[in-house]
Amino acid sequence: MKVVLAGGTGQVGQVLKREFADAEVVVIARSEGVRWDGRTLGDWVSALEGADALINLAGRTVDCRYTPANRRAIMRSRLESTWALVEAMKRCEVPPRVFLQSSTATIYADNYGPAWDERGVVGGDEEGVPDTWRFSIDVARRWEEAAAESPVRTVLMRTAMVMSPDRGGVFDTLYGLARRGLGGPAAGGAQYVSWIHDGDFARAIRLLISDESFSGPVNLSSPNPLPYAEFMRVLRDGRVGLPATRWMLEVGAFFMRTETELVLKSRRVVPGRLVDAGFEFAFPEWPDAARDLVSRRA
To answer: How do residues 44-67 score in pLDDT, each as one tens digit?
Structure first.
């Protein structure tokens, strides 16, 4: 099997490199593998020839303050890289069999009601939500639209937070908060967390590559999202966790140079299409997943 990772230098790229250790993995990125600026066509296009899958992970990190300059960089990096990959596939004599395009579960509206599968309400039109949340949804929508002219089967991966033991990832950040006594309820803690264990994420990617019935949006998430307060209680494992109000979170995010959306937005998403296809999660429940991640982190 030949798998091409576009921009595969981050946490999710590390997860997929481990999963496909038995395959030929080609990374095209600015700093690793076949060099690519994320915008223009070049000699790297030949790396796509005959690939079983092209997985697009390219894009500037969203772990930053959403200043005007950062917003432009976040949007441009996703659109320009996707447009370039689509054009590159069109130029291949033997294009990749499938294009897995990154997206995000953040595309769905803030939700405290019944969990949403792929038929859930795409956000952006709600009243009273922060402008930064609208921006994230706009990015997700346009990122998916940028893949519309792909010449091959295309899957839009609406991915929840991928929990892996890798340093610098989202699990590492949240576990660090829990260990320092800062993982108490945030703004009440009723907001839902949608997540997926890295092993289940990687196995789901294999399914999306091999099963040609998959195209369009697919939610990559555990079937059991849970409220933030419960999510962090599991991580604290008996430790005290100081609660935080919304204004405290805003102050903390300002000094950490990030946004509060990760914590405050309620994402209640389930993997309808994966479940319908008979996919079996090794870690469907957060307590078991957390124990595994902590043991592997150590």
So the answer is: 999 999 999 999 999 998 988 999
For residue 19, what are its two tokens?
């999963």
Helix (H, G, I), strand (E, B), or coil: what is residue 108? strand
Provide the β-strand partners of residue 116.
Answer: 269
CA distance 261 to 4: 31
CA–CA separation, 105 and 261 (whole Å): 13
Q: Are 237 and 83 in contact (CB under 8 A)?
A: no
Domain ranges of the chain: 2-297
pTM: 0.95
Q: In the structure encoding, which two tokens stand for residue 195, read together?
A: 């997540």
Domain 2-297 falls under CATH 3.40.190.10? no
Residues in the chain: 298
Q: Which amino acid is at 155?
A: V
- Among 149, 193, 152, residue whose Cα is nearest residue 174: 193
Q: Characterize the bridge pairing of strands 192-193 and 226-227.
A: antiparallel
